[in-house]
Amino acid sequence: xxxxxxxxxxxxxxxxxxxxxxxxxxxxxxxxxxxxxxxxxxxxxxxxxxxxxxxxxxxxxxxxxxxxxxxxxxxxxxxxxxxxxxxxxxxxxxxxxxxxxxxxxxxxxxxxxxxxxxxxxxxxxxxxxxxxxxxxxxxxxxxxxxxxxxxxxxxxxxxxxxxxxxxxxxxxxxxxxxxxxxxxxxxxxxxxxxxxxxxxxxxxxxxxxxxxxxxxxxxxxxxxxxxxxxxxxxxxxxxxxxxxxxxxxxxxxxxxxxxxxxxxxxxxxxxx
Amino acid sequence: xxxxxxxxxxxxxxxxxxxxxxxxxxxxxxxxxxxxxxxxxxxxxxxxxxxxxxxxxxxxxxxxxxxxxxxxxxxxxxxxxxxxxxxxxxxxxxxxxxxxxxxxxxxxxxxxxxxxxxxxxxxxxxxxxxxxxxxxxxxxxxxxxxxxxxxxxxxxxxxxxxxxxxxxxxxxxxxxxxxxxxxxxxxxxxxxxxxxxxxxxxxxxxxxxxxxxxxxxxxxxxxxxxxxxxxxxxxxxxxxxxxxxxxxxxxxxxxxxxxxxxxxxxxxxxxxxxxxxxxxxxxxxxxxxxxx
Lengths: 272, 292
Hints:
Number of domains of chain B: 1
Number of strands of chain A: 10
Structural class of chain B: alpha/beta
Number of helices of chain B: 11
Strand order of the largest sheet of chain B: 6-7-8-3-9-10-11
Largest sheet of chain B: 7 strands, mixed
CATH topology of chain B: Rossmann fold
Distance between the termini of chain B: 8 Å
Strand content of chain A: 15-25%
Order of helices and strands of chain A: EEEHEEHEHHHHEHEHEEHHH
Oligomer: heterodimer
Number of helices of chain A: 11
Helix content of chain A: 25-40%
Radius of gyration of chain A: 19 Å
């Protein structure tokens, strides 16, 4: 049994102090194994983004420890840690610099992390673009000259550029059309396999999670209320909040509707 | 048969730009009967939102827009109305709910003032007290328990779900014949979205309001609409009762769209093309079963 690639050990985050304190994440513990796709699902205010930000080192936990390959991560991350854990955000238009060409954005990642000989880097950029299903000559284009799906592919290429091990995907397809979303999810699945990547997939979309995650952590109001492998969690959700979440998903087929109503049975009608 | 609340016939729309003329709607026809819930479903760029804007008469004010075909609202040709008459329809005979409730409410006025403004459109002499009373009554209909607090609040002091309910209440306050809902609830959490749609459905049923529901979310459409039009690149490609379309989609584009939605029951991510020449196939119409 190999050690988990990423571990969170009683991680908490509190913003503010005294009476105004917000406990955004409360004693979160879980381990992510190499090569898996762990989904963190929850609604707004559940703490899922807070946890993602702590994994990325955007801010340190108020208490608790985050370990990468068994070693505790320091509050201020070293370049090596930042290389290992990369982020793909929801809106690629705002995460890619509009004044830089696609090629320059990718090149920057290679330069910062000193990947490949500098003469080689132009070729590496082309290879990265092809790996995510885009033509190599897209390197000359500006992000604004690309469609949403293409831009998201570029954002994925950038996360891969520095040979990352863990990619935190924060709602990577929720701004995309459904046909485009299917293609991007397919690509992510494929890259996870070929590159032996580990995904932390942050989303509110349970239908997506059902089909891409190996395990699911359900968050509610700063706490992790349930953690289980995808099949088990959908077959037999233990926590009422998980049930409520699944039974609120709008669905397109009768089989899904049947699953949903079987989970909704026994839940009390609640309004906000 | 009664006059449809909304009858769009062979509507075309193009924009004149620096690079020439771009046509975005290539002749779409759709109708909404009184009290009927009709969905227009399509991806971004398909032309669904511009259709709504034409019905509201908003695009007509744009100098670069070229609109053809006809839009009949309760039997009246919208094109024949002048700016003032069109303005008089909006907010009274027809109203709209937008995607993001928090940004469609004015942040510098209290909900009560905004409600008063809305009610004044139908009854210019309504007093503030009468308006507030009416507002509280209709807020109760959308399950807002603490109407007084909500009315006294600014939009940013309320949650997204509450703001959306305020929007629904405002949109229905003047008993419009037609409600246009453009992606309502998309910006909300799933549990809140589900409640919002339930409330909206209950309310339009009780008030017998016709709804043109614009969405990209097939699941939401299935649960809300009586009838569906699928729009792709400015053309309606499939139309029919919701059940018929969802249980037996015929057009290649509709089939692809349905197949692309990840299933709650699992099965992996389907392998489908983002685009295919088949998507240009002609319109598929399902029989209007059970419709008079």
